[in-house]
């Protein structure tokens, strides 16, 4: 099995005959394309208009994360995205869930999210609001020039998407996100 | 979509008007602009985000980096943003407590940091 078919295989179990499959080289400019396709497909399958911004941001974050991982560890490997509407409830009638899976080929790449990421804000010693932990806490630290993008991305994802599953295995990891499809 | 950046000085502050999408592809351009301004001695910045269509965590990271840079010179970085979809990202990450956010540039230039 070559690298590309292996990457596709990582997410094949989520793929149906109606799925849209994206496979792109790990370049930042392709992330916007993935966002646009995700929103277009979400709209087509019936995701509520009020959730489309969330889909756009979440897919962008997951793809940015995968691109970053691949650029550091395996720049020759493609990032794979599968977008599908599935019958999660098993009704056998209609698809009720829009599911996006972004697969990477980097093993063991799930960082431990910092406790309280996106929350936990307290008054600093000088009366200035600073975070105790999470991305906001980085502002108070001087060691790093810029915030670690991957960690910030993970904080946004976990704070944004209720139906979120981030996994990592020996052949790579995946970010699976789901949103309801409205009843017709 | 390209990132559009315009800068001007007003009332002792430097206003950076940002338009378009700030993401993993375009954020380096904003970072470069902020670094350049701080390098030129502009330590009181206002980033006007009213024309920003999209912001992701990479953009947040750049803004946080800018804040750290100006604070190193006892400066300030204030945001102008009224768009709910953009503000939501700041809330999710707890950064509404870190960045002062104004409703308008007029309000931002007269604000006391």
Automatic annotation (TrEMBL), chain A:
<keyword id="KW-0418">Kinase</keyword>
<dbReference type="GO" id="GO:0005524">
    <property type="term" value="F:ATP binding"/>
</dbReference>
<keyword id="KW-0723">Serine/threonine-protein kinase</keyword>
<keyword id="KW-0067">ATP-binding</keyword>
<protein>
    <submittedName>
        <fullName>ATP-binding protein</fullName>
    </submittedName>
</protein>
<keyword id="KW-0547">Nucleotide-binding</keyword>
<feature type="domain" description="Histidine kinase/HSP90-like ATPase">
    <location>
        <begin position="24"/>
        <end position="179"/>
    </location>
</feature>
<feature type="region of interest" description="Disordered">
    <location>
        <begin position="113"/>
        <end position="147"/>
    </location>
</feature>
<feature type="compositionally biased region" description="Low complexity">
    <location>
        <begin position="113"/>
        <end position="138"/>
    </location>
</feature>
<keyword id="KW-0808">Transferase</keyword>
<dbReference type="InterPro" id="IPR003594">
    <property type="entry name" value="HATPase_dom"/>
</dbReference>
<dbReference type="Pfam" id="PF13581">
    <property type="entry name" value="HATPase_c_2"/>
</dbReference>
<dbReference type="InterPro" id="IPR036890">
    <property type="entry name" value="HATPase_C_sf"/>
</dbReference>
<dbReference type="InterPro" id="IPR050267">
    <property type="entry name" value="Anti-sigma-factor_SerPK"/>
</dbReference>
From TrEMBL, chain B:
<keyword id="KW-0597">Phosphoprotein</keyword>
<dbReference type="GO" id="GO:0043856">
    <property type="term" value="F:anti-sigma factor antagonist activity"/>
</dbReference>
<dbReference type="Pfam" id="PF01740">
    <property type="entry name" value="STAS"/>
</dbReference>
<protein>
    <recommendedName>
        <fullName>Anti-sigma factor antagonist</fullName>
    </recommendedName>
</protein>
<dbReference type="InterPro" id="IPR036513">
    <property type="entry name" value="STAS_dom_sf"/>
</dbReference>
<dbReference type="InterPro" id="IPR003658">
    <property type="entry name" value="Anti-sigma_ant"/>
</dbReference>
<comment type="similarity">
    <text>Belongs to the anti-sigma-factor antagonist family.</text>
</comment>
<dbReference type="InterPro" id="IPR002645">
    <property type="entry name" value="STAS_dom"/>
</dbReference>
<feature type="domain" description="STAS">
    <location>
        <begin position="3"/>
        <end position="112"/>
    </location>
</feature>
<comment type="function">
    <text>Positive regulator of sigma-B activity. Non-phosphorylated RsbV binds to RsbW, preventing its association with sigma-B. When phosphorylated, releases RsbW, which is then free to complex with and inactivate sigma-B.</text>
</comment>
